[in-house]
Amino acid sequence: MKVALVLVLGALSACAQDPSAISAALAACGPKGVRFDVRSNNGQHPAPNPEPGKALVYVVEDQRKDLKACIGNCGVITKLALDGTWIGANRGSSYFSFFVGPGEHHLCAAWEKGAERPQDRASLASFTAEPGHIYYFRVRATVITAIGLLFYSLDLEPMNQDEGQLLVAASPLSTFDQKK
Predict the structure, then answer these.
(1) 14: in domain
(2) Which residues pair with 158 in a beta bridge?
(3) What is the pLDDT of residues 73-98, one digit of tens each?
(4) Higher pLDDT, 30 or 134
(5) Alpha-carbon span 142 to 117, nearest angstrom
(6) Of 3, 19, 48, 57, whose CB count within 10 A is highest?
C-alpha cells in the first residue's frame, strides 16, 4: 500500500512539472553528462594567493547519510557550476575554493547521481562578488533511508565567515579532474 501511494504521488508530481521553467531555473548549472574524479587530502589546507581585483569563494560540502557524517572520499559526488559552467566537485565532507571576478554570479550544486526530482538533484544560489572579499557556501547533502527507500536532499546556502572558516579548517581539501 505504501509503495503504491509513493508511486501515485510521484506520478502526480511529474505531471505538475513545467520542463521549460525548470530548464530556465537550472541555467546556472552546467551541461548534462559532465563528471569528475574527486580525491580528498586531509593534510593540506593551502591559503590561496590573492588574485588582484577578484573575490575568493569557498564551497564546503557537509554530507550526511542516515544522520551520520561522511568524511573525505566516501559518499556521493556533488559538483558545482558557476554561471553555467561546471568548475569543481566535492566528495563526502570536503571543500575547494576558486576566484571570481566582481559582479553578480549564479551557483548550482548538483548530484552526479541520485535523486529524481530537479529540486532534490540541484540547489541554486546567487551572490554579488566584491574584489578582495571572501565568500563561503555550504552544500548540505543528505541521504536518508526510510521504509526501504532512499530520500535525497541537497541545499546550497551562504555561510558567515566564522562558520565558513571553521568548516574549511575541519574538512579535507577536495581535488578533482573532469572526466573526459
Answers:
(1) no
(2) 137
(3) 456 788 999 999 999 999 888 999 99
(4) 134
(5) 14
(6) 57
pLDDT value of residue 4: 41
Residue 16 lies in a domain: no
Domain count for the chain: 1
If one counts every other C-beta atom within 10 angstroms of the C-beta of residue 90, the result is 30
Q: Read off the amino acid at residue 141.
A: A
Place of cell 557550476: 81
Instruction: Tell me how far apart the alpha carbons of residues 118 and 20 are, in angstroms, rounded to a whole number.
Output: 12
For residue 119, give Cα distances in angstroms to 82, 103, 155, 168.
18, 26, 9, 26
Per the structure, the complete domain to which residue 151 belongs is given by: 25-178
Cell of 16: 505538475
Provide the grid cell at 50. 590573492
- Give 34's contacts (C-beta < 8 A, 6+ positions apart): 79, 86, 178, 179
**Alpha carbon distance 36, 53 (integer Å):** 29
Q: For the sheet containing 77-82, what is the strand order?
A: 85-91, 77-82, 103-111, 122-129
C-alpha cell at 80: 558545482
What's phi and psi for 44, nearest 5 deg? Answer: -115, 125
> CA 143: distance to chain centroid?
14
The distance between the two most distant Cα atoms of the chain, rounded to a whole number of Å, is 61
- Determine, yes or no, domain membership for 20: no
